[in-house]
Amino acid sequence: DQQVKQNSPSLSVQEGRISILNCDYTNSMFDYFLWYKKYPAEGPTFLISISSIKDKNEDGRFTVFLNKSAKHLSLHIVPSQPGDSAVYFCAASGSGATNKLIFGTGTLLAVQP
Amino acid sequence: EAQVTQNPRYLITVTGKKLTVTCSQNMNHEYMSWYRQDPGLGLRQIYYSMNVEVTDKGDVPEGYKVSRKEKRNFPLILESPSPNQTSLYFCASSPNRVTFGYTFGSGTRLTVV
Predict the structure, then answer these.
(1) Which own/partner pairs from A14-17 qualify as long-range (CB within 8 Å, at least 24 positions apart)?
(2) Quick check: A42 and B106 CB within 8 A?
(3) Which residue in A90, A84, A73, A98 sits closest to A34, CA to CA?
(4) Is A101 near chain B, with CB under 8 Å?
């Protein structure tokens, strides 16, 4: 059972426009959410996170929005740049003390010059 | 440089031949974990370790073993590899607070024929 879902396997956006990547989750006990970015032949790297007590967190061109009632989070990238082309994973921290992160299936973002 | 180092990067082996993928981190992190990435399934946790001599199963532990004799090392052992263990493997570490996020290694591409 996939507790964290990214329903769009891929997304194509023009350079300079906004990229919006979406993520849905099923477990209301998740208390922290993170986005990771992954380039080919590299490991995922941490991008931005948000606590369940907030609804927005911003870091430069990246903003994450959390809608707890809808169990939905999104990552906005404005403006999008060709270097943003990568696979983006959302992740949620499981309830309990295991430090476990549960990942979505990933969305491949292609930013066209 | 703070990093997680995995070796080897690429490995082709035959069914049943025992192998070990090494993982080492230089950040003095308590928590370490192994994930596998498969198309359409995202990143799934295999095993994790909260500290030295403390390990536990993740979501897909069958066919794998781990050990944590030292804080910096967390090897992944496949006693009798099978073709369904062909995958991309990532080691990750973090302090024991998930809010800091994981630091991932660069990955090991394993093919079992």
Answers:
(1) A14/A80, A14/A111, A14/A112, A15/A79, A15/A80, A15/A81, A15/A82, A15/A111, A15/A112, A15/A113, A16/A79, A16/A80, A17/A79, A17/A80
(2) yes
(3) A90
(4) yes
The per-residue DSSP string of A33-64 comes to EEEEEE-TTS--EEEEEEETT-SEEEETTEEE
Inter-chain touch A93–B98, beta carbons under 8 Å: yes
SS3 B61: coil
Cβ contact (<8 Å) for A34 and B101? yes
pLDDT tens digits, one per residue of A63-92: 999 999 999 999 999 999 999 999 999 999
Distance from the Cα of residue B9 to its chain's centroid: 12
Instruction: Determine which of B9, B31, B37 to mutate to test the interface with A (most A C-beta atoms within 10 Å).
Output: B37
Each of the 113 residues of chain B gets a pLDDT tens digit; together they read 889 999 999 999 999 999 999 999 999 999 999 999 998 899 999 999 989 999 999 999 999 999 999 999 999 999 999 999 999 999 999 987 666 678 999 999 999 99
CA distance B4 to chain A (A): 10
